[in-house]
Structures are given as structure tokens and as C-alpha cells.
Amino acid sequence: MVQKAKILLVDDRPENLLALEAILSALDQTLVRASSGEEALKALLTDDFAVILLDVQMPGMDGFETAAHIKRRERTRDIPIIFLTAINHGPHHTFRGYAAGAVDYISKPFDPWVLRAKVSVFVDLYMKNCQLKEQAALLRLQLEGGGKGPVGDGKESAGLLAELSARLAAVEEQAEALSKQLDDESADAAAVATAAHLERKLTGLRRALDALEPGTGSASAVPSQG
User: Which InterPro entries match (predicted)?
Assistant: First the structure.
């Protein structure tokens, strides 16, 4: 059963959080509220998130400071951040947002469809990465208990290898479709780069899986997956 991705919504105004929930509910993912930067950082200690929507202007710890803390943590540094702001102080203000680690910077009021589409891309990328990690974990388990041959002996090993290959093929097909979607649209550079990184990891995992086929080499030659 595929788990839903979690999306972190950070805003000190309850009405803004309600509006974000209404816009993003159609994605059918888990929406997590945080009413301050401190509350957001606490949520990030225990849960994994596909993307963070972060209000810039908040009392106490503002969006820029919150983003800086997020990017300093090893666990959370790669989570995409979309800044939301009700003001526009020009290019310098926008540059500060990108310098803080944001993948996008959107001024309020924003187009609900555009925001939903942007968030959807990062949710898709997150889900593909989760699937990829699952395939890599299964592959490592097979290598650790593989026995004498590249993937062990008997029908059980052959069946597991076939299952891994089929599941990886499904992820490859979805990743290819996502990459085509990004090519067709004026997608964010960060989303395109993340998709390219995912494809490289998929290629490496496919090569590792192919190396486990009987007669193609030993399990020790399989590259590790980061």
C-alpha cells in the first residue's frame, strides 16, 4: 500500500492555513499545519516531508530564519521549500528567498492552480524517491543473503530477482513520464534537477540489478546506491 506524502504548511495566520488546505486537498496527501517557525522545526524532527510551504512574514522566527535552520540540518536540508509572501520588496527580497534555500518564491494572492501544480511536482518526485529507496533496500537484502551465486540458488532467488526487476521497471516508467511532463512545461529548475538526479539513481540501480543476472558477474561488483 502506497503511503501518502506529507506536506508541511507554515503560516502564523489560521485563515491562510485553511486556504492552503482547501487548495491542496485535491492532491489527496497528508497536510500538516505549523503556526510558527519553531513549530515547523519541531515537526521536521520526527516526520519526513515532500515539500514545505513557508510564509515569509511571521512573528518571532520569520520564514528566512526558519529556512536557514532547515537547510543546516542533515535530515531536512534537501526538502524543497516554497516561500509564500504577501509583500514584494523587489528583486533583493526575492533573491534573499532563493539564497535561503527556496526552490520557488510566490507572492500572494497566488493562482491556486499554479500553486497546486508546483506542489504536485515535488510530491511526485518525493514518491519516486521513496520507491527507489525501497527497491535499493530489497536489493541490498538479496545481496546480503544471496548465498554462493550472484543472487543465490534456486527458484526463490530467481523469483525475487524477477519481482525486483518488474517493480523497478514500474518506477522507471513513472519517472520517465514525469521527466517528459517537466520538459513540456516551464518547470522550476530545481524540479528538473531533482528529476535528473532521480533518473541517474534509477540507472545505477538497473545496472546493479542486471549484474545480478546469472552469468553476468558477481554480487560484489554491484555498485552501492546512495
Answer: Bact_response_regulator, CheY-like_superfamily, Sig_transdc_resp-reg_receiver
Local confidence pLDDT in tens for the 226 residues of the chain: 458 999 999 999 999 999 999 999 999 999 999 999 999 999 999 999 999 999 988 998 989 899 999 999 988 988 999 998 876 655 556 666 666 667 788 888 888 999 999 999 899 888 888 888 787 777 777 766 654 444 444 555 566 667 677 777 777 777 777 777 666 555 566 667 667 767 777 777 777 667 666 554 444 444 444 4
* 135 closest CA partner among 220, 206, 47: 206
Scan for cell 513549530, then name that residue: 39
Question: Can you tell me which residue has the cell 510566490?
Answer: 106
CB environment 118-145: b (16+ within 10 A), e (fewer): bbbbbbbbbbbbebbeebbebbeebbee
Radius of gyration of the chain (CA): 21
